[in-house]
Amino acid sequence: MSGLKAGAEKKQVSRLGRRRFSELGEVENKELILNEAEKLFAMQGYLGTSLKQIALQANVTQALITYYYGTKQNLFLEIYRRGLADIARNRQQYLDDLKARGSDYEISDIIRTYLKPQFEHRDGGEAWKYFARLQSRLVSEPDEVTVPLRKELYDEAIKAYIEEMMACEGKEHRVAISWGTVFMISMILYMLRGVDRIGELTDGSIHAESEDDMIEKMTLFIAGGINALK
Fold this sequence. Notes:
75% of the residues lie in helices and 0% in strands. It is mainly α. The termini are far apart. It is globular and about 55 Å long. The protein has 12 helices and no strands.
C-alpha cells in the first residue's frame, strides 16, 4: 500500500505542475511571472506568446498565472502598468522641476521632460531594455489589446502634456501641438527599438554620441516641427 500511495502522490505533484503555489511568496511569484512574460512578449509579441510558454519560462504552473492575472490580456496590461508607473513618476518630477523655474522655459523644455524618462529607462539594464522593446512593438499588436491599453495608460498623460505645451505656446496653437505630439509618440516608439538607423544609413559615419545627444536631437526636431505647423 505504501508503494501505491507514494506513486499516487508523485502523480499528483506532476499534475500540479512545475512549482507549487506555496514555494514562493505572492510578491515574488508575481514579480517572477511579470519578468518572464515581459521578455517573451517583447521578443515574440502578444499573439506569438502563450500562457503555457510563460509558465514554462517562469517555471510555474499555468494555473498560478491565471490565479493572479486571469487572462493573457490582463497579464499584458499589468506589465505595462508596472513599467509605465516608474516612467510617469520620473516624468512628473522633471515637469515639476521645470515649472518651479517659473515662466523661464520653452516648449522644447516640456518636450524634453516627456522624452527623458523613456530613454533613461532603456539604458537602465536588461529588464528595461525588454520593456523598451515591448513598447516599440505596440503599433503591431492587435487593436483589441492596444486600444484599451492606450486609453488607460497613455492617453491621460499625453493629453496633460498637450495642455502644458498649449499653456506655454498659447491655445491658438492647439492643432499644431496636437499633431506634433502624435508625431512625437510615433518617433518614440521607433527609437525605443534601439536600432542604430543613423549609423546604417550613413555607413557608420554618424552615430548618436549618447542617450542625451539623441534626446536633444529629437527635442529640437519635434519643437521645430510644431513651430512649422503653426
